[in-house]
Design a protein that fits this description.
It is built from nine helices and no strands. It has about 170 residues and is mainly alpha-helical. The protein has a domain of about 55 residues. Helix 2 crosses helix 3.
Length: about 170
């Protein structure tokens, strides 16, 4: 039986098509998850806060909801997770401002940045530099180690230091 010969280029192209499709599938699932958490946050906010900035004292909706959801769907719907969902909606009240290129882990870090300018800066940098969750976390924990441009440091409200420029 004769051995069929196929080009290396065909094999490489086929592998690239498969890998790209897999990466796109993961991104799609991640974004669906982000949208789900945003919608949960919105619904909790509407129920618990009735459009006000703060919930009434003694409102235990998140705790009760977490108990019911965890029983059926697992630990991904804990009280703490649902509180993150609510904060996510409060931080990003317009659904269209949620970026499909960021995942839930990244958003959980970003919603903890109170300064809008800083948060938007890190969002853009995460997207433009394809930072994953670990990279974003490392940068948020020690921004001075990553950011060397004095103009960026000033914009972010961080002190410029000669040590930053020598890195």
């Amino acid at each position: 039986m004769a051995k069929e010969v196929i080009s290396t280029k065909l094999v490489q192209d086929a592998k690239q098509i498969i890998e790209t499709a897999r990466e796109n599938a993961v991104r799609s699932v991640d974004f669906c998850r982000v949208q789900m958490y945003w919608k949960l946050g919105k619904r909790i906010f509407e129920e618990e806060q009735h459009g006000r900035k703060r919930a009434d004292y003694g409102a235990y909706i998140v705790k009760s909801l977490a108990e019911k959801l965890e029983a059926e769907y697992g630990s991904g719907f804990s009280k703490r997770q649902l509180e993150f969902c609510r904060q996510f909606f409060i931080t990003y009240p317009i659904a269209n401002t949620v970026c499909s290129q960021l995942n839930w882990s990244q958003y959980r870090m970003l919603i903890q940045i109170p300064d809008l300018d800083k948060r938007e800066y890190y969002e853009l940098e995460a997207v433009n530099n394809s930072w994953n969750g670990r990279e974003l976390e490392r940068i948020l924990e020690a921004p001075q180690e990553v950011i060397k441009d004095p103009m960026i440091l000033e914009f972010l409200g961080l002190e410029s230091s000669p040590a930053f420029l020598c890195m």
